[in-house]
Specification:
The structure holds two protein chains of two kinds. Chain A is mostly helical. Chain A has nine helices and no strands. Chain A folds into two domains: about 15-110, Rna Polymerase Sigma Factor, Chain: A; about 130-195, Winged helix-like DNA-binding domain superfamily/Winged helix DNA-binding domain (Arc Repressor Mutant, subunit A), CATH 1.10.10. Chain B has helices at about 5-40, 70-85, 95-105, 120-130, 140-150, 155-165, 190-200, 205, 225-230, 245-250; strands spanning about 40-45, 55-60, 65, 85-90, 140, 175, 210-215, 220-225, 240, 250-255. The chains are: A mainly alpha, B alpha/beta.
Chain lengths: ~200, ~260
């Protein structure tokens, strides 16, 4: 199992290297793939930093804009030497810092109201924030599955692909994919009830 | 709740949340990917042309680079070195619309294609704007372009600008020929230039050595490809090697094609 994860980690590094090489070579499909590959995790990160959905979306968009602009000016060698993911995270943090600074300037005195907790908080509440937190929790938990489980669960339940398509994309047998999905969902159930307010606990 | 029941409950909750996440991310991604690509990169498409398949790189302002390349990667690298921008495939609606427009124009129809000349010097831009206005089926000399661009002595520099034209065909530098009526050089090869001009109906071999036509009925001389010159009856055609020679023979320049006299 540990061995398998190491291999998967190596595999992931390889695919990241491949993407930087494609960017360096000028592959016109590479910028889109970069957005598709990283936007979800950067969104989670930006959301964690900014605690606001639309601010997080704006931030992610700006991150990609900035990285593309920078990549346009970099030499082939410099792009090849990049560690894409840490670089993207660093830029996300910078963008979030600017957003903090800007929001402080825009709201000089009037404080944003504190959430009203007098009536016992979340019970029965279905505010947008809470439901967003829940699906963000699900994404976060998804990140804690093994690579193979995560890939299959993502393709099946987030991308909504059929098992036949998943098998074709991953090269894994269809039954293996079904097993990975079942185990992945089982594990997610445990992870999510562990962090919910005691409801799923035994 | 028994163990089995709580397990199922957890799994169902997980599934529901994943579907929420999928819906939200899907909606967000559609907009985000295109917006990020539109703002952060310039866009690329390929297009059929009289020179075969060409790659076309466009900014938000218009066509910025057009040319042949061994691969999209090679073209995109050249673009990045020249303009400092990444190229991504033009999958958005506005690039698709521009691609259709370029294809129509390169097929010979008269449609306006915006060109982004922001990477050029003011002189280059003036020259390229003049050349952009030369109609299909007509040719002009380097000296004429120089004069129209406001630098009558710069016909050699005009040749240099033509050689580095970033958007051939969109800006028809193949319609600029030598002062003696021979076709001269072309970035894609002298033979390609002849082929392009013949394809547009230019009588290339007739022009060589006599790029100007005059008629005694009006006393006017024109570029031989000017629509007015084409209306002159064969028996009235007087051919001239230079505008100067036509003037000396007592003709005055056409007001439509404005032949350049001495330069």
């Amino acid at each position: 199992m540990g061995m398998e994860n190491e291999l998967e980690a190596a595999e992931y590094m390889k695919s990241e290297d491949l993407l930087t090489r494609r960017l360096a070579d000028g592959d016109p499909g590479a910028p889109r793939e970069m957005v598709e590959r990283y936007h979800a995790e950067l969104y989670r990160y930006a959301w964690a930093l900014l605690r606001d959905g639309s601010a997080a979306e704006d931030a992610v968009q700006e991150v990609f804009e900035r990285t593309f602009t920078a990549l346009g000016r970099y030499s082939k060698e410099r792009i090849e030497a990049l560690s894409l993911r840490p670089w993207l995270y660093r830029i996300t943090l910078n963008v979030a810092r600017n957003a903090w600074r800007k929001s402080r300037r825009e709201v000089p005195v009037a404080e944003t109201p504190e959430p009203d907790t007098r009536f016992g908080g979340a019970s029965g509440s279905t505010s947008g924030t809470e439901s967003r937190e829940s699906w963000m929790d699900a994404l976060e938990a998804l990140g804690r599955l093994s690579e193979r489980q995560r890939v299959v669960v993502t393709l099946r339940y987030i991308e909504d692909l059929s098992y036949a398509d998943i098998a074709e994309q991953t090269g894994w047998p269809e039954n293996t994919c079904k097993t990975l999905a079942r185990r992945g969902i089982g594990r997610l159930g445990v992870l999510l009830s562990g962090r919910s307010d005691g409801e799923g606990g035994s | 709740m028994n163990g089995e029941g709580s397990r199922r409950f957890g799994e169902e909750r997980a599934l529901g949340l994943l579907r929420d996440a999928g819906k939200h991310l899907g909606a967000m991604r559609e907009g985000l990917v295109e917006r990020a690509l539109t703002r952060g990169t310039d866009r690329l498409f390929t297009c059929d042309s009289p020179l075969g398949e060409v790659y076309v790189g466009v900014s938000e302002r218009g066509v910025r680079l057009l040319g042949r390349a061994a691969s999209p990667e090679e073209f995109a690298r050249r673009y990045r070195e020249r303009f400092g921008r990444l190229l991504s495939w033009g999958t958005d609606e506005s690039t698709r619309a521009l691609a259709r427009r370029v294809a129509t124009a390169l097929a010979g129809e008269k449609v306006e294609v915006p060109a982004d000349l922001s990477g050029t010097t003011p002189f280059q831009r003036r020259v390229l704007e003049v050349v952009k206005g030369i109609p299909r089926g007509e040719v002009r000399s380097y000296a004429w372009v120089a004069r129209e661009a406001g630098s009558p002595k710069a016909s050699r520099a005009v040749g240099t600008v033509m050689a580095s034209n970033p958007v051939p065909l969109v800006i028809p530098c193949h319609r600029v020929i030598k002062n003696d009526g021979t076709t001269g050089n072309y970035a894609f090869g002298a033979e390609e230039k002849v082929g392009l001009l013949e394809g547009e109906g230019v009588p290339v071999s007739e022009l060589a050595g006599s790029p100007y036509l005059a008629t005694p009925t009006t006393g006017i001389f024109c570029h031989a490809t000017c629509p007015n010159a084409r209306r002159i009856k064969p028996e009235n055609r007087r051919r001239f090697r230079s505008a100067q020679a036509a003037i000396e023979a007592g003709y005055r320049p056409c007001r439509v094609c404005r032949p350049a006299v001495a330069g």
